[in-house]
Design goal:
Elements (H helix, E strand, L loop, with lengths): L1 H12 L10 H19 L7 H16 L15 H27 L8 H28 L3 H27 L4
Helix pairs in contact: 1-2, 1-6, 2-3, 3-4, 4-5, 5-6
């Protein structure tokens, strides 16, 4: 819920757009909102959890600066559902790797088996972004409104937040913090 709440907060600060519109600042601002939401949960479980916010800002800023763009706030241009699924999966793998690697730095000394976090993040983003972009495309085709893509991104964040949340809680329970 912290991740989805952070996404909701991010929508007050940046708007959902298409890949060329969403760069380093959109990524950093959105990553900060997400990291802040997650920090509220993590601060009780790990020391110096504020590093998580910084890791989220930096990783989303780097993703936004790359050719990917800030994909957590991007609706694909294509309306072909199979392409949305394929590119959602492929781009989700890249996002999950970036995020997982930088966030791993925060938990690596505090959480046993922290190396699993990068894998969990990668798989979660691949599944979540593919589902979100696919559903968003179907809703947009059905309604002819961009709001369908916005709902699709909300679903992506819900899937990613759910999968990563369950995994992170499990990893934290195994730690001695």
């Amino acid at each position: 819920m912290a991740t989805v709440g952070g996404f909701g907060l991010s929508l007050l600060l940046i708007e959902i757009g298409e890949r060329p519109d969403m760069g380093v600042w959109s990524g950093a601002i959105g990553g900060g909102a997400i990291g802040l939401g997650q920090w509220f949960v993590l601060r009780k479980r790990i020391t110096q959890a504020w590093w998580w916010i910084l890791a989220s800002i930096v990783s989303w800023g780097l993703i936004g600066a790359s050719d990917l763009g800030a994909l957590g706030w991007v609706a694909p241009r294509t309306m072909q559902i199979p392409l949305r699924l394929i590119f959602g999966f492929k781009d989700g793998v890249q996002i999950g790797c970036w995020l997982g690697a930088l966030q791993w730095l925060v938990i690596s000394r505090k959480v046993p088996r922290a190396w699993l976090w990068t894998l969990v993040s990668t798989v979660s983003w691949a599944i979540g972004l593919a589902i979100g972009w696919g559903v968003g495309g179907m809703l947009r085709l059905a309604t002819n409104f961009f709001l369908g893509d916005v709902l699709g991104l909300a679903i992506a964040w819900l899937v990613v937040g759910g999968l990563t949340g369950v995994a992170l809680v499990s990893l934290l329970r195994s730690s001695t913090y």
